[in-house]
Amino acid sequence: MPAPARLSALFGALLTVATCGAHAAAPAAEPAYGPELEGFDYPHPVQQYRFTSQGVQLHMAYMDVKPAKPNGRTVVLLHGKNFCAATWEGSIDALTRAGYRVVAPDQIGFCKSSKPEHYQYSFQQLAANTRGLLESIGVKQATIMGHSTGGMLAVRYGLLYPEQTEQLVLANPIGLEDWKALGVPSLGVDKWYEREQGQNADKIRNYEKSTYYVNQWKPEYEPWVQMLAGMYRGAGKQIVAWNSALLYDMIYTQPVVYEFPLLKMPVLLLIGTRDTTAIGKDAAPAELRPKLGNYAELGKRAAKAIPHATLVEFGNMGHAPQMQDPAAFHAALLKGLAAR
């Protein structure tokens, strides 16, 4: 049984499912992981792409999972801000069963990859790192699929490398609006760092329950809470928080929404319409908050702006439809990939 599945079974015995607005109870024993998620097992073997960037030796963890019966296509899975490559476990299984080779990296600053003390984070840089990884393992063309922050990165990748991008798949991407232009105040790196130093499992769980899972909770979500929270309990929690702060500032200051009309490849939008994600929403003026993160509208707006877009909406899902209803999500995903 893969590690996340084992963890899910363990947490299932320890958790009470949320009812009447109460969040699920935290497990009695909470793990602490290293700054590169040491101690947390991934569902497939983890390899390292080693390279130099901005004068620093870095390593980028990734899983490269090959199907039993290849169809000749590769899908690259780009995780979100609060997730890791491991959280793609269900999608990796669905895609490889359908014949796709799957490459799932942890971006620099996340999870099992390097967390440099100083790094100028940009979506261009992360896209270039990803392209270098793919070239190192012989992937010339691929479908690029991103969730949440990974959706912003997927768009940037498609803009930078259109000839190497067969198709984009955006699963509840953030960046469908420009929060800065709408009036969300800039927190800056120092304020983000202060916030991230106070991160814990209860905060993560409560946020994900309301935003990712439409105020519902299942025991199988808990391993991903502990995966993230465990890095904030470990000896390297300060470098984890520092890189997270730098990444939040990147997300806030580098919108991609204005460039949607420049995308040349087919784009599949998979949108849970009950999502309300918006970076820095809690710091925005009270009158602005209800207007932010309206995915029922944002998904339609993005589909109109992107020249070759196909929109699939999930009316009862939040920010993580691939986890909330894996069967429905993967059916739509495989249909959209086959239609390319």
Explain what this protein looks like in three dimensions.
The chain is an alpha/beta fold and 340 residues long. It contains twelve helices and eight strands. The protein has helices spanning 3-14, 89-97, 123-136, 149-160, 179-182, 188-197, 201-211, 222-233, 237-253, 295-305, 321-324, 326-338; strands spanning 47-53, 56-65, 74-78, 101-105, 142-147, 165-171, 267-272, 309-314. It has an eight-stranded mixed sheet, with helices on both faces. Strand 5 (142-147), helix 4 (149-160) and strand 6 form a beta-alpha-beta unit. Helix 3 (123-136) packs across helix 4, helix 6 (188-197) packs across helix 9 and helix 7 (201-211) runs antiparallel to helix 8 (222-233). It is globular and about 45 Å long. The protein starts with a helix and ends with a helix. The model is unreliable at 1-28 (pLDDT under 50).
